[in-house]
Write a structure and sequence with these properties.
The chain is mainly alpha-helical and 125 residues long. It has one domain. 87% of the residues lie in helices and 0% in strands. The longest helix is centred in the N-terminal third of the chain and has 35 residues.
């Protein structure tokens, strides 16, 4: 790849990170609506899972915002582009901005499942 292609790929990574920031904000709200619809929003299992999901997204969102702010609000020089490239392709960034989303979603879905099982269990007793 040439330098122009590298820069285009970095722009895509930037858009991808902004997309994830939107997911960090929208996913908990969407799952709260689902929990209310399932009538499990008062379950302690659901509330605990929601707190863990929000904490995962908080960590991820702070990291993504910090990452974006560091590179977007600075005049780009060849050295900064090289630093941005290394950071953008790092395993740390991938974990914090991508894997943490799925971990948070896992907490949320697991909380819905456990709260639903609890509701069914209490209803059948």
């Amino acid at each position: 790849m040439n330098e122009r292609d590298d820069l285009e790929q970095l722009k895509l990574i930037t858009e991808y990170i902004k997309f994830h920031i939107g997911l960090y904000l929208a996913t908990p709200a969407a799952l709260v609506i689902v929990a209310q619809g399932m009538k499990v929003d008062g379950s302690p299992f659901w509330i605990a899972a929601l707190i863990f999901m929000i904490l995962a997204y908080l960590i991820s969102g702070i990291s993504a915002g910090w990452f974006m702010g560091k590179y977007i609000n600075t005049k780009w020089t060849p050295e900064l582009i090289e630093e941005f490239s290394k950071a953008a392709y790092s395993d740390r960034r991938r974990f914090l901005h991508h894997t943490m989303y799925w971990i948070g979603l896992g907490f949320g879905v697991l909380g819905l499942i456990v709260a639903s099982i609890q509701k069914l269990w209490l209803t059948c007793r």
